[in-house]
Specification:
Strand order of the largest sheet: 2-1-4-3
Largest sheet: 4 strands, antiparallel
Distance between the termini: 60 Å
Helix content: 25-40%
Number of helices: 5
Radius of gyration: 26 Å
Number of strands: 7
Strand content: 25-35%
Oligomer: single chain
Order of helices and strands: EEHHEEHHEEHE
Mean pLDDT: 87
Structural class: alpha+beta
Shape: elongated
Length: 180
């Protein structure tokens, strides 16, 4: 595992912790003590892949990033990205999106959180209010359920109301069963 270190315009890619510590020691603004050195060694030995930043003074940090890159050019071109995590999240997102359009006729319960425009009677002005709408409807797919709910609401609320995407977290559905 290699380490990328950066402090303002000073950056390097090192292949072991000792080189990282010597690079940081060469920067006068960084006070390298035994606690900082031990923390850097612990971070390098851990299974954590998130970047780590260390505070030098208020609003001034240096960062360390674990990478598989063999050279600075590979790191800059993001050739050493960990594919397992990125691939798994893409597959999960793709399967969630494909479930939205799967043809499965039946009863659905859809819940939609949207921004509804309402008038305040005291002032005569309008404002957005977070509103939840839950409905049970016959539909052929979750996408169809969403479309039916939005179509129903468009005729009953102010046209300036804002509806979320079917792909977002503000639309939830549950399949209740096949209709007869």
């Amino acid at each position: 595992m290699n380490l990328y270190l950066r402090y303002f315009d000073k950056e390097t890619l090192v292949f072991n912790v000792d080189d990282a510590i010597s690079f940081l020691s060469s920067i006068p603004e960084i006070d390298m003590d035994e606690h900082l050195e031990a923390d850097i060694r612990d971070y390098a030995a851990s299974n954590v892949y998130y970047p780590k930043r260390y505070k030098i003074r208020p609003r001034v940090y240096f960062i360390i990033i674990k990478t598989e890159a063999a050279s600075m050019l590979d790191f800059k071109q993001k050739k050493a990205v960990r594919p397992t995590i990125a691939g798994e999240s893409r597959e999960a997102a793709a399967s969630a999106l494909s479930r939205l359009v799967d043809d499965r006729p039946g009863w659905y319960e859809g819940a939609l959180d949207f921004k509804r425009v309402v008038m305040i009677p005291a002032t005569g002005k309008f404002e957005y209010r977070d509103t939840r709408f839950v409905a049970q409807c016959k539909a052929n797919s979750p996408q169809d359920c969403y479309d039916r709910i939005v179509e129903h609401l468009r005729g009953r609320v102010d046209s300036r109301s804002q509806f979320p995407s079917v792909k977002g977290k503000n639309f939830r559905y549950k399949y209740l069963g096949y209709w007869k």
